[in-house]
Amino acid sequence: KVQPEFPLDRKTEIYHEYNTLVMKHYAEWHHVSQYADAMRLTLPHLCSTIKAVSGKTAGDMIIDAILTDAKAQLKITNLQVKEIALTLGFENVAFFNRFFKAHTGMTPKSYRFS
Known about the structure:
Elements: H1 10-25, H2 32-39, H3 43-54, H4 58-76, H5 81-87, H6 93-104, H7 108-112
Helix pairs in contact: 1-3, 1-4
């Protein structure tokens, strides 16, 4: 691990740790509280720190990771939408479809063929 020239402040450290955990666990942990527990931080402290450092909400970072993966799988694999939903931790394909449409404005199937 390369040490930065300047030590990171605690808020930036928390942001980096959170981001690393999201990239590792977004397909299984969909709730910010799961990350707060893993990081041994209170939920309000984690949320306010992420917002202060990144300008995004902690929840939006999870959503962005899920959507990035979903979009990639829809475009570059032949997996069924149901299979993609399962790989992303959604046991209910209808819920995945609603989640995807709410955040992209289109269904997974229409995104795949767009």
